[in-house]
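Table S2 (text version). Query chain:
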Amino acid sequence: MTPVLTTEAFAALGAPNLVYVRPIKAAEILASVPSASVQGFDLDPEQTLYSVHRADGERLAVLTDKDSAVAAALAHELAPVSVH
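Corresponding structure-token output:
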């Protein structure tokens, strides 16, 4: 049987340095942030971006490629893992 973890329990596993990187469509970003936040960015809604999240799911950053997302996490002394 697979154990079920609460968000808090999952976050505590790697707290506070564990983060995960996952692909995300630009459309999801465009729908979730104020339009003023993305002014000046030329984003195709179907474009794949990469987001960095804390273990509790909070999105910390969005970058254009996976290598940059991992590098940004490492630069901030975080331990990134990939999520497919």
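Notes on Table S2: The helical segments are 7-14, 26-32, 66-75. Strands lie at 18-25, 48-54, 59-63, 79-82.
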